[in-house]
């Protein structure tokens, strides 16, 4: 009996510190777009406890739109959110010490109906292009620059643009209201799964413009003061994100757990979304800041201060170095 008691006591002694550590993990508060594809990574992190394995607990608050996530982040209700680094550069040039950890390089392109007869951008002259977002959408700006360089064509004046939310642009493409479509990558993946054809990808256009298509556009944004005060949590976020990406890149079974939240209409859409996500996973190599600077200068030239604010060149310290 005494032996049994000693064994039980030893077990309790061994378990207690682990439980205490689990309860005492520091929290990272994340403001996330409820419908964003970043939630596939977030769900993978939580399902596989990659946050706890990297020394923190990820607490996620969902919001209906990107504007609300920014309000939560800037108001101190959240420690991180996801945004594109052009916005971070804008804020940083305005004096805010925001930094960026790459999350995804997934970008869109321009698609048309298979039987449209449109083979290149000049074939869109005089026709309507549906564009998700607005006139400052980065994909639209890059394709405008590409059309000018490759074809001497001003897409803005030689086509008619229809701007709208991604679902509306998606529907317009299939109802023949528009001849070409520029949409977010996951809508384009579903459109291609339904038979539409890509005329030019933003990645190919960026390469032709001597930009680096491997530069991740989206990432986790944090405040510099938070990074300085909680370096281990920030490293943990980076580690959990990379571990989730490794699972999503190499394990098909992980995607089965995500299928309900992917809104895929059939197997073809599911596979297109899975493969599109995988294609957008950053390499993990250090950011080519010279290439990023060229990208920002192009955005400044095409989008002006309304897009980049005072950031006419790459602000120092924007991309957080963790390795």
UniProtKB/TrEMBL annotation:
Pfam families with a match to the protein in the record: NMT1
UniProt cross-references to InterPro entries, sorted A to Z: SsuA/THI5
Signal peptide interval: none
Keyword Membrane: no
Alphabetized UniProt keyword annotations: Plasmid
The keyword Transmembrane is assigned to this record: no
PANTHER family hit by this protein: ABC TRANSPORTER SUBSTRATE-BINDING PROTEIN (PTHR30024:SF48), ALIPHATIC SULFONATES-BINDING PROTEIN-RELATED (PTHR30024)
Name of the protein: ABC transporter substrate-binding protein
UniProt source species: Sinorhizobium mexicanum
């Amino acid at each position: 009996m005494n032996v049994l008691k000693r064994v039980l006591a030893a077990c309790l002694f061994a378990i207690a510190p682990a439980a205490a550590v689990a309860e005492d993990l520091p929290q990272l508060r994340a403001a996330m777009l409820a419908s964003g594809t970043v939630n596939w990574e977030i769900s993978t992190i939580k399902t596989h406890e990659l946050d706890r394995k990297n020394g923190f607990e990820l607490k996620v608050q969902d919001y209906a739109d990107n504007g609300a996530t920014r309000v939560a982040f800037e108001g101190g209700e959240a420690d991180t959110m996801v945004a594109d680094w052009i916005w971070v550069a804008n804020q940083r040039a305005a004096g805010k010490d925001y930094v960026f950890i790459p999350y995804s390089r997934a970008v869109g392109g321009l698609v048309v109906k298979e039987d449209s007869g449109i083979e290149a951008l000049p074939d869109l002259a005089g026709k309507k292009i549906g564009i998700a977002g607005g006139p400052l959408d980065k994909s639209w700006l890059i394709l405008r620059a590409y059309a000018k360089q490759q074809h001497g064509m001003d897409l803005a004046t030689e086509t008619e643009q229809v701007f709208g939310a991604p679902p509306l642009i998606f529907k317009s493409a299939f109802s023949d209201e528009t001849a070409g479509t520029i949409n977010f990558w996951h809508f384009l993946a579903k459109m291609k799964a339904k038979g539409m054809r890509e005329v030019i990808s933003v990645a190919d256009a960026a390469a032709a413009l001597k930009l680096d298509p491997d530069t991740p556009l989206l990432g986790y944004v944090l405040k510099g003061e938070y990074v300085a005060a909680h370096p281990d949590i920030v490293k943990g976020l980076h580690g959990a994100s990379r571990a989730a990406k490794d699972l999503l890149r190499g394990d098909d079974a992980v995607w089965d757990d995500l299928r309900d939240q992917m809104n895929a209409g059939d197997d073809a859409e599911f596979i297109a979304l899975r493969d599109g996500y995988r294609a957008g996973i950053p390499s993990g190599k250090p950011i080519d800041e010279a290439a990023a600077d060229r990208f920002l200068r192009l955005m400044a030239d095409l989008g002006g201060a309304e897009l980049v604010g005072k950031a006419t060149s790459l602000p120092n310290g924007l991309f957080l170095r963790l390795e």
